[in-house]
Amino acid sequence: MTSRFEITAGLMPLLDSALLVAAKEKDFARVEGIELRLVRETSWANIRDRLAVGHFQVAHALAPMPIACNLGLSPLSVPTIAPLALGLGGNAITVSLPLWELMSEAGATASFDPAAAGRALKSVVAKRTKAAHPPLRFAVVHPHSGHNYELRYWLAASGIDPDREIEIVIVPPPLMADALQSASIDAYCVGEPWNTAAVLTGAGRIATVKAAIWRSSPEKVLAVPASWAEAHAEALASLLRALVRAAQWCTNPANHDELAHIIARPGYLDRPVEWMLPALTGTLHASRSHVLPVPEFFVPYAKAATFPWKSHALWFYSQMVRWRQVAHTDANAAIARGTYRPDLYRTALASSGIALPVANAKVEGALKVETPVGSAGASLLLGPDGFFDGDLFDPDELDGYIARQRTGSA
Amino acid sequence: MPEPEATLSVLIIDENRLRAAIIEDGLRDAGYTKLTVIHDVQGIARRIADIAPDVIVIDLGNPNRDMLENMFQLSRAVQRPIAMFVDRSDQASIEAAVEAGVSAYVVDGLKQERVKAILGMAISRFNAFSRMSRELEDVRNELEGRKLVDRAKGILMATRGLSEADAYALLRKTAMNQNRKISEIAQSLITAAELFAPPEKD
C-alpha cells in the first residue's frame, strides 16, 4: 500500500513518546496511509523551533507548551494546536538518597503518598531555613511543563513556598539522574524512565508520583502548527486515528514487553529494557529493594486518555497565572481554551467506534471513583481524577480558582 | 572609526571546541572584538551576568537550551531580558539557522540589522564545519577501507596462492560484479575468513 501522507514527528527520549513510536513501529500509521518519520530531539526548544520552520509537521510536546506558544511566552513560536493527548500521568518526583534519609527521619514512608511526603519535606525545609542553609534545589524539564506545575502544586499544598523555600532549575530529562548523583540537585520531577534510572543506578528514590498528586492528569500532547493542521486536515485526522489505535495497543498488558523492547532501542530511548517496564506495568521501584504497585501510573488509552480536555488546558493556564508567567485576562484565557481542539479529535474518530466524551471540559477532581459518563461510540469510564489535597478545579469558575490560589499561596 | 556592530558583545556557547574556535575566528576577522567562548554550561548564570552579552550564539545540539532559555527570561540572572533569534519576520534567516544547527539570542530592543551579520557568520561557519566533518569522515572511511583491502589481499594470497596484483584484481572484479564497494567485499571476505579460521593459538 502506498502512503498518501508523509509526516515527520519530533520526539524527546521519554517513555510517553510510546504512542508515536507504536504508531510507526506497529504500522498503525501505515494502515492509515501515513509514512511516519520519527526524529529524536535533544531539547524542547529544538522541537518548538523545528515545528516553527516546518521540519516537523507534528511533535511530542509538553501539554502546556502549545498554550505557552500561543500566549507568546516562548521565543520563535507559531500558532500551535493540541488535537490529541498522548496519555495521562507518567511522571514522578525523585529525591537524592541523603534528602530521602532526612525525609524518612521526618516521617516519610515508602508509600508514594504525596501528603505524607509533603509533610516530611516541609519539616526538612523548615529546619534548613532555621539553620540558614541554602534552599533545596529541585529540577524540572521546562518552565512550561506539567512537571513544573505539579511539583509546585504539591509543594504549595504541603505548605512549602516553591519560589522562596525551594530553588527550581531546568535540567534535560536524560541528565537528571547524573545531576542527582553528582549532588548538583537534590530532587527532580520528570517522566519515565528517568526516575527508574535514578533508583536502579542507586542515585535516588521515588518520593511520590504524578498519578497520586493529581489522578488522571494530563502530561504530553501532540503539538501541531495551526497552519499545517488547517491545510492538511485529512492527514491530521488519519494520524489521530493511528495514534488512538497505537494507544489501544500500548495499553494491552500482552504488548508491554514488546513495547519495552522497541522503545529501548538506540533510535528512541537507547537505555535498558528493564528501565521501561515499571511505568508500562504500573509497578514502580520506590528504592532498589522496594517495589510498589501504582496501577494508574501511566494511562495511554483508558479514561479517554487521548482526549484533549479544555479543562486541562485551562488548569495549565491557571498555573501559568499562579506562578506569574502570564497575566490573567479574558483574552489570555480564551487563547488557552482555544489551543486544545477536541472538535478535531471528535471529527477524526467519529466513525471509529471509540468512546467519545460528550463534554469538552469537566470539573477536575469531581470524580472520587471510576464513573460511567455520557459518551458516543462506546461506553466510557472516567476518573478518579482528584487532586491529593481534595481541591476541585471547575473550568467555569476560573476567576475564582485563580483568586483563591493567589491568596492561598501568599 | 570602528563599525558600531563591532562593539557588540558576543557569547558563543558550543561544546564542540573546534567549531567554537572556527566561529570565533570568523567573527574576529569580521572586526568583532568582544567575544567570549564557553564550552561547558556549568555555572553559566554567573558568567552571563559578568559578560552581559548582546548576542548569544548556541548550537542546537546542546541539550541545555531549555535551561538557558529559562535563564534568559529571568531578568535577575541577566540584567537585560534576552529575546530569541533575529526578527521573527525574517523567516529565511531563521530557517537557515535551524537548518545549519545554530540558534541565536539577542538582547531585547537591539536593532535587528546590527545582529544579522553575526547570525549570518555563525550560519556559514556552522555549515562549513558540517562539510568539513563530512569530508573528514570520508577520509577516515577511505583509510579504513584501504586497510581492509590490504588484509583481504593478504588472506587471498595466503589461502589461494595468488600474487598481490591478482588478489586485488579478484577483489575488484567481485565488487564490480556485485555492484558493491571494494572495501565492502574486503570486509565480507575478512569476516568469512575469521569465521572459518582455525582457533588462534595462545
Give structural notes:
The complex is a heterodimer of chains A (410) and B (202). By secondary structure, chain A is of the alpha/beta class. Chain A folds into three domains: 5-87 and 219-270 and 299-349, 3-Layer(aba) Sandwich (D-Maltodextrin-Binding Protein, domain 2), CATH 3.40.190.10; 91-213, Periplasmic binding protein-like II (D-Maltodextrin-Binding Protein, domain 2, 3-Layer(aba) Sandwich); 356-408, no CATH class. Chain A contains 18 helices and 18 strands. In chain A, strand 12 (283-287) and strand 13 (290-293) form a beta hairpin. The longest helix of chain A has 19 residues, at 233-251. The mean pLDDT of chain A is 95. In chain B, strand 1 (10-13), helix 1 and strand 2 form a beta-alpha-beta unit. A five-stranded mixed beta sheet of chain B has the order 2-1-3-5-4, sandwiched between helices. Chain B is α/β, with parallel strands linked by helices and 202 residues long. Chain B has two domains: 4-134, 3-Layer(aba) Sandwich (Rossmann fold), CATH 3.40.50; 138-196, Arc Repressor Mutant, subunit A. Chain A binds chain B through residues 42-46, 49-50, 52-55, 74-76, 141-143, 169-172, 174-175, and chain B through 60-67, 69-71, 73, 83-85, 88, 91, 94-95, 98-99, 103, 105.
Quick structural summary:
Chain A has 410 residues and is α/β, with parallel strands linked by helices.
The interface involving the most residues is between: A-B, 23 and 23 residues
The chain-level mean pLDDT of chain A equals 95
What is the approximate shape of chain B? elongated
- Approximately how much helix is present in the residues of chain A? 40-55%
